[in-house]
């Protein structure tokens, strides 16, 4: 029997040292799953609501746990997630917290996988999954909300498009991270690391472009396959609604100038990927940019879509973007995240499964990416909470994942 017998919730630490929610789900047959909620810093305005972890846990214990225990089968993920939604009773999980919801949703999936003795990606994706792997996008330089006094653009991402295996791709991204450090050193630029382990030097974006372009070229030569790069501009964080302009370190750009700037960058650096190049309310700007460069790069909506099928549908109708970032905690359950992936794929949008800047050792997103056949995963390049997912992808590729 896969009936939930117990749901336990606790507070643990995330990678920023903040408290977050961890859930254990136990089944009557002794199946066990454990998962933890990640947490964003550059959060989208339309994301599901993360509550203070102690409030989220108290509320989930009161409203959700009694509906799950003894009543819901973990193998029926949709029922688990419907129950969470019904227990919450709001559109945005503001009652039990998206942090409690996502932790329970993911822990239930892991308990179901445990019961059948299959890796999580096979439970979620079916017996024939595990032959195709996502290309990892590795954050190597960054700033924005993830590091003070660093680049204005939040993330410069290594994209090893030519890697023959996930393992090669993961190693290439780590090599780019290391090559960036060497180049910073040569220029006598000191750098600490941001929240996701990317270098966070006090340089402007132009210099970061030069360095990352050189680092990716060096690693491409060394590894013998194509390594390009991309960006998460996280433009909502730069956008001033009143002035209607984007604030960079030493300049500002109007929306038209921002579109021109990003389109020029795509061509100058052959960018493989551009996430959130415009404000989260600017479908029109996304559509214009996609029309200009969407044939040669991914234009990905993170804060724009927030893993929400309604917002994605609006984007599809307007031709805004050609890719969606999928973060389970942005929407609150695995079912909702999978719905977003499915709508994206049906509509010709590329799904990118993603971590948050605040993470734990949880590896669910590695399994979700393989389960859904997503072509990309964004989960950092180095750092324990990032390598937890990357190393899990390597294990899945080698068929030795035991989750
Ligand atoms: C991972 C990201 O950062 P955060 O988790 O802070 O939203 C992102 O913006 O894509
Ligand atoms: Mg983003």
TrEMBL record:
Subcellular location: Cytoplasm; Secreted; Cell surface
Pathway: Carbohydrate degradation; glycolysis; pyruvate from D-glyceraldehyde 3-phosphate: step 4/5
Domain Enolase C-terminal TIM barrel, chain residue ranges per copy: 130-403
Record domain Enolase N-terminal: where: 4-124
The keyword Metal-binding appears for this protein: yes
Active site positions: 196, 327
PROSITE patterns named in the record: ENOLASE
Secretion signal, residue range per the UniProt entry: none
A single GO molecular function term of this UniProt record: magnesium ion binding
GO cellular component, one term: cell surface
E.C. code: 4.2.1.11
Catalytic function, reaction form: (2R)-2-phosphoglycerate = phosphoenolpyruvate + H2O
GO terms under biological process: glycolytic process
Known role: Catalyzes the reversible conversion of 2-phosphoglycerate (2-PG) into phosphoenolpyruvate (PEP). It is essential for the degradation of carbohydrates via glycolysis.
Family stated for the protein in its record: Belongs to the enolase family.
HAMAP family linked: Enolase
Descriptive protein name: Enolase
Organism from which the protein derives: Halorussus aquaticus
Name of the encoding gene: eno
